[in-house]
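Changelog note: in this version the structure field was regenerated for every chain. One regenerated record is shown below for reference.
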Amino acid sequence: MQKDTITTVLQKQQNAHKCELRLLSVMRQHPLLFYFLIAYAISWTIGFGYIVVLNHRTNLPIWLAFLFTTGPTAAAFIMTGITEGRAGIGNLLRRYVRWRVNIIWYLLVLVGMPLLLLTVGWLQTGVWSFSNDLLLSNPVFYLLVFFFGGPFFEEPGWRGFALPRLQERFGPLPACLLLGVLWAFWHLPVFFIPGYNGAGTGFIGISTAILNFMIATIIITIIFTWVFNNVRGSLLLTILLHTSINTTGGNGPSSPTAQWIGAGVLALVVVVLLITTRGRLSYDRYKRDQEQLATRTTTDEQAA
């Protein structure tokens, strides 16, 4: 009797191990699918749980908003560990501190993008409204947004894990379209808060706002991708870019009309980028840089 029980337990353990191996194999075959599933599961459980299930139709508490933003990065590290192991996680971490890029890109991210968004705000309202949240005027707030306002825990997922794989599989422009839609839709829970980015109530009020936001996010994603491809895939620069947008873009009007005006101006910038890069958004440069980095890493490991 005891022997049969032990045999049954061992069989169950073996079956569970086989199921685990089978699941890991499927996850390795479809890394992007499982990345987005995990990112959404973490963030939407928090967002919908608090806003919809508990019916708190106000802004998330700071600590809960912080947890909400961790979904993309948590998913990135989980899937990187499954698909590439410790080496992949090490490569992802090194991109956080990849700071050696031309100073022009720092100027573009820290000065150029805020100026562009301030210009958009002027076109929307007729008033030049200098933000008190910019790096130069309020570095403490800028750093708080950098670490706790979304960029630090979103970019390693969107740009660190998803974008390189999407570009490799679909090419740069289709990758931007896919990532823009999925990045925007990830925000869905907070659109159940009336007033968030022009959100109203009911199906029409929420769906209209998320659609406008999605179009703007696709446009912004193209700019992000162009920067990402030119800074050797540096997460530091994309986090800084995201922070500059969050600390500048949130100061203008949030009505759908204002968002369309802003999207139109940014769309003109994107058209220029697509024309000058022939639709490639400097992706060929990114691939060359990654090949050089991989060669250098291999040489360093052999020397060690």
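Spot check on this record: The chain has twelve helices and no strands. The radius of gyration is 22 Å.
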